[in-house]
Specification:
By secondary structure, the chain is α+β, with helices and mostly antiparallel strands. About 55% of the residues lie in helices and about 10% in strands. Helix 2 crosses helix 3 (about 85-100) and helix 2 packs across helix 4.
Length: about 220
């Protein structure tokens, strides 16, 4: 048996090399189990070796990421160290850099400042501006101010929940659309209003929502 390939069926085309993804590896194991009724030892040993190679690569990558995160956080802390209310300033800098506040960055910030992680999350969750999830490629914001509320913004919100399968403050699993609500966008004469990728759409009806979402999906396909 070659050290860098597995051929459970004897067919060279079925070989699984270290660079192949996990789905191919799982498929290969399932075929071997169907053929033999169990996973032969030589295959399980080779799979274990391949996984160890992958894990070692991931550990090296994680080490590089940790170093980068630590350096970036230290730079933000140094910039705002002597400013009053510096935690909020640092969190703003982090969000401007990443588009949200990643948990691993918040943990590093906790260590660097000597502040409990719970305190950092108190600040993040108190201010609507901060996000805990990566932003979507596209943003859909429903105004829920008084004028828009009276004109049916609640119905628009419910329709978006249904169409996107998420709720306010969340991003679709494919990271394409982020959905949120705000108190007021200052366009009361256009109520109910929705802002889509920075463009304000006025007098929106629930029947319009599907079309707006389809337009966003079309942008994704065009970009691809």
């Amino acid at each position: 048996m070659k050290a860098n390939a597995i051929t459970p069926s004897g067919d060279p085309s079925a070989a699984v090399h270290p660079h192949e993804d996990e789905s191919a590896l799982i498929e290969m194991l399932e075929k071997a189990e169907q053929e033999h009724g169990y996973i032969p030892r030589e295959i399980s040993e080779e799979v274990a070796r391949l996984l160890e190679v992958k894990l070692e690569r991931l550990r090296r990558i994680q080490g590089k990421l940790d170093t980068t995160i630590r350096r970036d956080v230290q730079q933000h802390v140094e910039r705002w160290r002597n400013e009053e209310g510096n935690l909020i300033m640092i969190l703003h800098a982090i969000q401007n850099q990443h588009g949200y506040v990643p948990r691993e960055v918040a943990m590093e910030l906790s260590r660097e400042l000597g502040v409990k992680l719970a305190r950092i999350y108190e600040v993040i969750t108190f201010y609507h501006y901060f996000k805990l999830q990566p932003p979507g490629a596209h943003n859909v914001t429903v105004c829920n101010g008084t004028a828009c509320y009276l004109k049916g913004s609640g119905d628009l919100i419910n329709e978006l929940r249904t169409q996107l399968g998420i709720t306010e403050g969340q991003t679709t699993p494919d990271r394409q659309i982020h959905f949120e609500t705000v108190r007021c966008i200052g366009c009361c004469g256009m109520a109910p209003a929705v802002v889509i990728d920075g463009k304000t759409c006025g007098h929106v009806k629930t029947s319009d929502i599907a079309g707006h979402i389809e337009a966003l999906k079309a942008r994704k396909e065009t970009a691809a």
